[in-house]
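The methods section describes the discrete structure representation at length, but only in general terms. An entry of this sort, consisting of the sequence and the corresponding backbone structure tokens, reads as follows:
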Amino acid sequence: MSAAPTRAAPVAGNRLQADLMLTLTTVIAAAGWIFSKEALAGMPPLIFIGLRFTIAGLVLAMFSLPQLRALDRRGLRNSLLVGALFAGGMVLWILGLSHSSHLGEASFISSMGIVMVPVFARLFFGDRPPTSTWFALPLALAGFACLSLDGGFEVELGQWFFLGAATVFALMFNVNSHIVRNVPVRALSVVQMLAVGVLVLPPALLIETWPQTWSAPIFGWLLASALLATTLRFLLQLHGQSLTTPSHAALIMMLEPVWTALAAAWWFAETMSALQLVGCGLIFLALVVSRWAWLRGLFGGRG
């Protein structure tokens, strides 16, 4: 799940520090999948996601008061638009998580949004996608097909939810890049988080049942999801991105599904069939291919 906005930032500071910070971000993001799955054992999904981002947004706001004060009316309106898309994506993501029994597979499907970003940029904003996009997209779709065919010729409901979330996040990334360029990233993050709480929690309370009892472990998983996997992750990611280029940051962020699969194998003893491994491998290859032009530049390629 890639929630924090990826914004253009000047190259500054220590590259090693940025790499370590962004790698830690991906590890925390992977842990967030575990936290959320454990919390869902004692909470309805929409109430959980609404509470998670309300808590996280309020805590992050305390670290972002100067940026929030600088937010003008137009910036707030555009930020709310991105926040509404973020809320829609998170609803699909948490519904996918509640219907999924395999986190490793789910994390790779969610990461397909990275491959879709240039496609939406072309459709809605007329940007010209890099040639690598047209190689990456078939690989990602082939990977999804392998995952969906693992249990027979039927796509599971959770897989559809994760694919929908990836699509919404790809659209959100484009809207974020083209419409809210001048909004301070920390203020934008606060608006995004609180938008999830405001838009999701009230209807969730109408259609879901509030837990009658709150066990200490479930409350702990909720707080871990909000404070560690959301607030701390956003702060680390935003700072890490400020120390390097967006392309370099995006490359490191691709590690999230790998860590998630490893964490799920350790925590839930998940295993993958040969077809699942092929599917996840194809999706990860698609992510690498989508960044191919940048990789060639990094290693001295020409063209």
Residues 2-13 have pLDDT under 50 and may be disordered. Residues 147 and 276 are 5 Å apart (CA to CA).
